[in-house]
Design goal:
It contains four helices and six strands, in the order αααββαββββ. β3 (about 105-120) and β4 (about 125-135) form a beta hairpin. Residues about 1-10 have low confidence and may be disordered. The chain has helices at about 5-10, 20-35, 40-45, 85-90; strands spanning about 45-55, 75-80, 105-120, 125-135, 140-155, 160-170. Its EC number is 1.14.12.19.
Length: about 180
């Protein structure tokens, strides 16, 4: 007879079923559409109350200089936010004083290479994905952000909520004039 602890350990890192992978992939696509269309109220409803949204700054390092700069929360980060902090950032758009958003930025998010794994929690899933986020504003301002994401999504009823996101940019120097985009 197998005990519960053994079952949970074998569950960790196991590839999810096709149905679950499809459902979470569709969730990522919906999230991208909501961000593209600036439906932030609907997007934030997809965020768990205990959310941690992290986008670390990346330094160019030699391979021999092993460092955990991506997971070290004490290092520089573009985002290291909770849900209340994201809501505060977004509320700025409603003030009329967000000069970087008048005129509005145009966004396109492309999400690809989605992989879903089970975790030790039966209602949470690790989701790997790649992203390309394009922004254009005014006449000539263009930015492209490219990277990988590692998420934890929690099933709540018939939908999913984002619990944790680590977005890892492939840029070590941010050339954007501002960072008013979520990936």
């Amino acid at each position: 007879m197998t005990d519960t602890a053994t079952i949970e350990r074998t569950r960790e890192g196991t590839t999810a079923s096709l149905e679950l992978t499809h459902a979470l992939t569709q969730t990522l696509y919906r999230e991208a559409r909501l961000l593209d269309d600036e439906h932030y109220k609907a997007w934030t409803s997809m965020l768990a109350e205990d959310l941690h949204y992290h986008m670390p700054g990346i330094e160019t390092r030699y391979r021999r200089d092993k460092t955990e700069q991506v997971t070290d929360l004490t290092r520089m980060a573009y985002y290291n936010d909770s849900k209340p902090e994201i809501l505060k950032r977004l509320s700025r758009l409603e003030t009329g004083t967000a000069w970087s958003e008048d005129p509005a930025t145009r966004y396109t998010h492309i999400i690809t290479n989605v992989e879903v794994e089970l975790t030790e929690n039966t209602d949470e899933f690790r989701v790997y994905s790649n992203f390309y986020a394009y922004r254009n504003r005014n006449e000539r301002d263009e930015d492209s952000l490219i990277g990988n994401r590692i998420d934890i999504w929690r099933q709540v009823g018939n939908s999913f909520q984002l619990v944790k996101r680590r977005a890892i940019l492939k840029h070590n120097v941010m050339l954007s004039k501002n960072l008013n985009i979520y990936v």
